[in-house]
Write a structure and sequence with these properties.
Shape: globular
Structural class: alpha/beta
Number of domains: 2
Number of strands: 12
CATH topology of the largest domain: Rossmann fold
Number of helices: 15
CATH superfamily of the largest domain: Glycogen Phosphorylase B
Distance between the termini: 19 Å
Helix content: 25-40%
Amino acid sequence: MPYFIEFGWEPLILKIDPNEQEGIKDPQLALTIPKDIRTWQAGCIPRSVTEWIGLRNVGWRSIVHLARLGDRIIERERPAAIFFSTTMFPVMAIGRYWQKRYGVPYILDFQDPWLSDYQRAGRPSVASAKYAVSQQMAKWLEPFSLRKAAHVITVSSAYVDMLGTRYQWLQEGMMTVLPFGAAESDFDVLRGLGIQQQQFNTRDGKRHWVYVGRGGDDMAFALRAFFGGLSKAVAEDAALRQNLRIHFIGTDYAPGSRSRKTVEPLAVAAGVQEMVIERPDRIPYFEALGCLRDAEALIVPGSDDPGYVASKIYPYVLARKPLLAIFHEASGVVAFLKKIAAGVVVTFKTNDDVSRVANTIASTWFSQKIAAPPLDPTAFEPYTAREMTRKLCSLFDSV
């Protein structure tokens, strides 16, 4: 947000009611948005009205209110373009309505796949049934929304390939890969706020390694490989069991009692459970940065989905701590980390041998003296929030 004006665009924000969103609230994030940016907040069907049919998604519950309030904003402000950057995918369909009614071009930003080719494993459950329903809706709404879009942005070239294969009518040049930008100033904001993380005690005499981010079954391979490497390291140095604690924080999107642990069971299977602490509940963004700042080292496991892009990788790099990343070889994260020479990167292939990857982790991470990699400002410049915003505004100009 701070860079749009610099590149000739005034952003107007149409948002949902944060009190209708489940999970933790993070009001301090608003401190990163310039105070002079105008915002409008849409209404929402109360969760108590729709919960009986299993509808909690705030995007669906807000969609009509967003459309109506958007009508008034468009009629008064006459925006040059409408930009959807959200994982509440159903609201993207409003773009086609506004384009037809007002002739305003709209741009869709895919941070994650809407209609996913990734197959979930495991037993049927309420969650998997709801996921199946949402994917059925996506089969209709995704092409409906894309059909009239002026441009499509994705965080990964894999999504470009996926959408291009799925929709032959998407013309060449209609899609641009534009990852998230690194918000360099956020660690300065953290220092100014004086926020202290509450997840572990840095004065307890132990070494603390940290991962903050989602877990899930698709990360099981990377985690099994990491715990396999850890098990080998413990066999070489028994003191690690007493001295090292590895924290996995915010691993589940579901709040409170509905959250589940997906990391600790893998640690148990590897025999390193006393060293691993998983807290599935999400934590506020600046407290998460505090965890990265206070850790001795950082661990980032990747998905077995080749198209997965870890948007959180930038704060890990900006924390300037020793970093181990375990990703599918086709992930864009691998090329990024290697280009800026940030940390130890261990890759795996589809259907790879977990013991092979574990041995690589043991030899390239645990057998070496860990140290924070230097950060080359010149190499990192293309990934900053300012540079990404410049590219985005250039795209808006062309639209």
